[in-house]
Design a protein that fits this description.
By secondary structure, the protein is of the alpha/beta class. Helices cover 34% and strands 24% of the residues. It folds into 2 domains: 1-103, Formyl transferase, N-terminal domain (Rossmann fold); 109-217, Rossmann fold (3-Layer(aba) Sandwich), CATH 3.40.50. 41% of the residues are buried. The structure holds 5-O-phosphono-beta-D-ribofuranosylamine.
Length: 217
């Protein structure tokens, strides 16, 4: 079966992009990365993508008059690469409604919290401030409302009494690196899709496919 053509949007380190790239090296993985696109010319993730032999593009937002023009250029680059699904992986700009609607149902993101808790930035700091015992990450479809689109899959991690935002973020990041390729495989194989306003799963998708429970500390 033809592999789903995926583009990954990054702004920085690109470790989630790296985990997706590693997963796609498996010949049986149902998706391939056709492009890594960054809005920042010096994202370390660009070099990592090149090490994997993936085409890269920089579309620097600073070179455009406004967000719409920047995102129209991104859509053009994505289309030129034959993109069928866009994965946001540490893309640090809020996307305009036009772009989100253009890619509706074909645009997913990984967020470092168990949504709908802790939308936005500084999730680990805020989770510790609130004293949550369980934290984690979510892969979701992107809608115009920030971090509020239909949830595809989630992984939970325990919070240790002596956690700092750094130690907690490391634990969550490890969970992200497992969850994102897994969620992408579910989408690419058509087992989960956008329908109406929700993420609909085939009947053979079990809770183990979409929910990763915390390992004890
Ligand atoms: C990750 O924590 C991701 O969930 C969030 O931004 C971070 C990006 O890290 N959206 P990386 O660039 O993938 O290493």
């Amino acid at each position: 079966m033809a592999k789903l053509k995926v583009a990954v949007l990054i702004s920085g380190r690109g470790s989630n992009m790296g985990s997706l790239a590693r997963a796609t090296m498996d010949p049986d993985f149902p998706a391939e990365i056709v492009l890594v696109l960054s809005n920042r010319p010096h994202s370390p993730g660009l070099e990592l993508a090149q090490e994997h032999g993936i085409d890269i593009r920089v579309i620097d937002h600073k070179e455009f008059a406004d967000r719409e023009a920047h995102e129209a250029a991104m859509t053009q680059a994505l289309e030129e690469a034959g993109t069928e699904l866009v994965c946001l992986a540490g893309y640090m700009r809020i996307l305009e409604e036009g772009f989100v609607n253009e890619w509706r149902g074909r645009l997913i993101n990984i967020h470092p919290s168990l949504l709908p808790s802790f939308r936005g930035v500084d999730t680990h700091e805020r989770a510790l401030e609130r004293g949550v015992r369980v934290h984690g990450c979510s892969v979701h479809f992107v809608t115009a409302e920030l971090d509020a689109g239909p949830i595809i899959a989630q992984a939970a991690v325990p919070v240790a009494p002596d956690d700092t935002p750094e130690t907690l973020s490391e634990r969550v990041l490890e969970a992200e690196h497992n969850l994102y390729p897994h969620a992408l495989a579910l989408i690419a194989s058509g087992k989960i899709r956008w329908s109406g306003d929700s993420a609909v799963a085939d009947s053979d998708v079990t809770e183990h496919d979409v929910a990763v429970f915390p390992n004890p500390l």
